[in-house]
Amino acid sequence: MVVQLLPYVPRTVVRRVSARYIAGATVHEALEVVAQLNAAGARCTVDMLGEFVTTLDEARQATDDYVRLLAAIHARGLETQASVKLTQLGLKLDRGACLDNLRRLVRTAAEHDNLLTIDMEDSSCTDATLDLFERVRGESPHVGAVLQACLRRTQADLERILPLAPNVRVCKGIYLEPATVAFQDRDEVRRSYLALIAAMLEQPSFVGIATHDDALVGGCLDLLKRHRISPEHYEFQMLLGVREELRRRILSAGHPLRVYVPFGQHWYAYSLRRLKENPTIAGHVLRNLVPLGR
Ligand code: FDA
């Protein structure tokens, strides 16, 4: 019920409750948050919100914004990469234009000795995203990919890209997908996740272990120990504002950890998505709306 009500909640309330998940509206605000996280020992990757472009001009504009973002990161000497969604670069409008935009961003990342990770979107984008990743990764090592453990196809996708010695973030997958393409059972998704990590650790690659799930963090720590993996080949990754106590525990045990830092004008759509995922947080929105006299 809370989730159904969310679109009717005033933006100011959504903004207040979701502030912990979003680093602000501007590059300056985002890089301030990055600087604080760097000081606490965490690396970052910044994501400029705005996957909903409807024209190629908007896609070019988003590319320009990312170019400026990568330059600002370099100028401030921060330990942060950038993450981007290909629909933001025009994937659904014109694949050739999207490839041009992507190439420009990866060239810029290379100039600044940085890395651009291509987020993975819903399953209608998987083929095109992996195709463009493979093309660009063939030209430059300054690009990373994301694989979603919930998809039945992902083990085969990993085998396809492993020969590129890729930098891959493994996550569960955030999009609701039908049973024909995705595992629906939580334990099946977990088994798939651990199998993907195990396969990556056996090859020359770099894996981002992106999860807040205690069972998966524990399982991955066991795998890292068993395979004697050194920290140049992996890092844990977590979303800004989520399970900060777990983040501190992983860092203080000496593991590298990266925080995903979303920011930008399009914070509202992103916030609704995060709040819908987590009814406990959505409950806070309702309490802000209706003083329950606690
Ligand atoms: P799970 O959902 O079981 O969460 C474990 C616990 O963490 C929960 O019980 C809760 O306590 C807490 N938690 C998790 N999410 C929370 C939230 N939003 N708010 C508050 N608490 C929360 N997906 C995708 O499809 N494409 C992508 O490119 C990415 N990129 C990405 C980058 C990084 C760095 C991370 C950490 C995640 C992604 N994801 C993603 C999202 C991912 O697919 C997945 O939806 C979330 O990480 C939640 O799954 P967990 O593995 O954390 O487990």
Secondary-structure map:
Blueprint (H helix, E strand, L loop, with lengths): L1 H4 L5 H8 L8 H13 L3 E6 L7 H21 L3 E5 L10 H17 L4 E3 L7 H12 L5 E6 L5 H8 L5 E5 L14 H16 L4 E5 L3 H13 L7 E6 L4 H9 L4 E7 L3 H11 L1 H11 L5
Parallel strand pairs: 1-2, 1-8, 2-3, 3-4, 4-5, 5-6, 6-7, 7-8
Helix pairs in contact: 2-11, 4-5, 8-9
The structure holds dihydroflavine-adenine dinucleotide (FDA).
Notes on the structure:
About 50% of the residues lie in helices and about 15% in strands. It is an alpha/beta fold. It has one domain (about 25-290): Alpha-Beta Barrel (TIM Barrel), CATH 3.20.20. Strands 1-2-3-4-5-6-7-8 form an 8-stranded parallel beta barrel, surrounded by 7 helices. Dihydroflavine-adenine dinucleotide binds near residues 171, 242 and 281.
